[in-house]
Amino acid sequence: MALLMETRLLLRKVKDLRCLTQKRHRVKEKWAATRIKHPATGLALQNFDSTYSVQLGPLWPSVRAALLSERKYGALLNNYGHDDVQAELQAKGCKDFPSDIETEAQPCLEQEPAVAGEEESSHVSVNKSDLDAQQLPALQLSPNIKCLVFPRGDITRFKPARPDMFGCLGYYLMDAASVLPCLALNVQEGHNVLDLCAAPGGKTLALLQTKSIGFFGVNDTSVSRTTRLRKVLHSYVPKPLLSDEKLRITTFDGTKWGEIEKNTFDRVLVDVPCTTDRHSLMEDDNNIFSKNRTGERRRLPQLQLDLLLAGIEAACPGGEILYSTCTLSQIQNLSVVEQAIHTAREDHGIQLQVVDLRPLTHMFRKTFDFAPDLPLGEMVVPHLAANFGPIYMCKLRRLT
Ligand SMILES: C[S@@+](CC[C@H](N)C(=O)[O-])C[C@H]1O[C@@H](n2cnc3c(N)ncnc32)[C@H](O)[C@@H]1O
């Protein structure tokens, strides 16, 4: 009798479980159908078509085609590796873009700094194609960062990096345009540097290649992404250089940094979360254009502003801040920087100077395509022959 009861109970449980599985399956199917009807990538394309066709005008069709095609990578060389990877890659036709610049393109004149607001207007009317290198202000770049790329039009892919005899990987594959904010940050010997939104760590690794940083604050609010960053650093950098006295990895909310550590860092990188345009067009998973992330997407400009303001507060007077994104969106780029300059002055009494990055666009114009005549900052725009970016960057210097 007891056995019969037990068997019935077991059968009922199996039936319940089957029902539950079927219900789950139906929900999954319904969800999949919604996604097919409104895939996030499709919503992203609709959004970009309506906004970027206005913002970029006749440039948009070619940028669009590039965004929808396979992107190009660069190989960030690991200066802590032991194999001669550079020679190996050069033998395959790559060049180190930061060092392989045309000498005539090197800017050499110092220019009187302009306070933010004044310089913005003088910046508007310049046509980059007419730039004369001799008229550009001097711009120092972070040293020792090497990034190998295949020539324009060459879409050869890099092989995955191999570990050397000490287990160190020879290079890190990343969008070569992402190296530009690190070069523009101009890290010099002994500088205290903060990377406010650092994970998964491509730019952190690029900044470490300078071998110049005194103390490095590396932060990202996401614990899982910071774990990934830690793994990346351990695969490329010798352990003693990652000791607590030299490098500190934290998972704070970066928007609060100004409350924690004001007026401290010589250089601050603020590489904010954004609509990550390329990812949004290519991947339905983890896509900010998904219907259920509309609120998060709308809040992005405010989050970006809060992060930039915190970065400005974290920098010391005289210190430099580099704001960067991987979106073409004016609202997430230019408008955020404009608002930050205004708020820093009005609410925090901090005067900022916009650092002219035109020398950088001039130096690297053979490798990247830059948006013409931006009123504030510079932007790499994807092109089928040089399919890097988008990367927007704007550099600010604290005067007070
Ligand atoms: C564009 S990604 C950074 C990419 C990174 N700099 C690199 O080169 O690999 C933006 C990062 O901001 C982080 N983030 C989002 N909100 C944040 C916050 N309030 N404080 C700090 N980090 C934040 C995200 O977790 C994400 O990893």
Low-confidence stretches: 103-114, 117-127
State the helix count: 14
- Helix percent band: 25-40%
General form: globular
Q: Any idea how many domains? A: 1
Q: Tell me about the biggest sheet?
A: 8 strands, mixed
Give the C-alpha Rg. Answer: 24 Å
The CATH architecture classification is 3-Layer(aba) Sandwich
CATH class: Alpha Beta
- CATH fold-level name: Rossmann fold
Please give the alpha-carbon distance between the first and last residues.
87 Å
Fraction in beta strands:
5-15%
Give the overall average pLDDT: 89
The chain-level structural class is alpha/beta
Could you give the count of β-strands? 12
- Could you say which small molecules are bound to this protein? S-adenosylmethionine
What is the H/E order? HHHEHEHEEHEHEHEHEHHHEHEHEE
Which helices and strands appear, and what pairs or packs with what?
Layout: H1 2-37, H2 40-56, H3 60-67, E1 74-77, H4 85-91, E2 95-96, H5 118-123, E3 147-149, E4 171-174, H6 179-184, E5 192-195, H7 202-208, E6 215-219, H8 223-236, E7 247-250, H9 257-260, E8 265-271, H10 277-282, H11 294-298, H12 300-314, E9 315-325, H13 334-348, E10 352-355, H14 358-363, E11 378-380, E12 391-398
Parallel strand pairs: 5-6, 5-8, 6-7, 8-9
Antiparallel strand pairs: 1-3, 1-4, 2-3, 9-12, 10-12, 11-12
Bound molecules: S-adenosylmethionine.
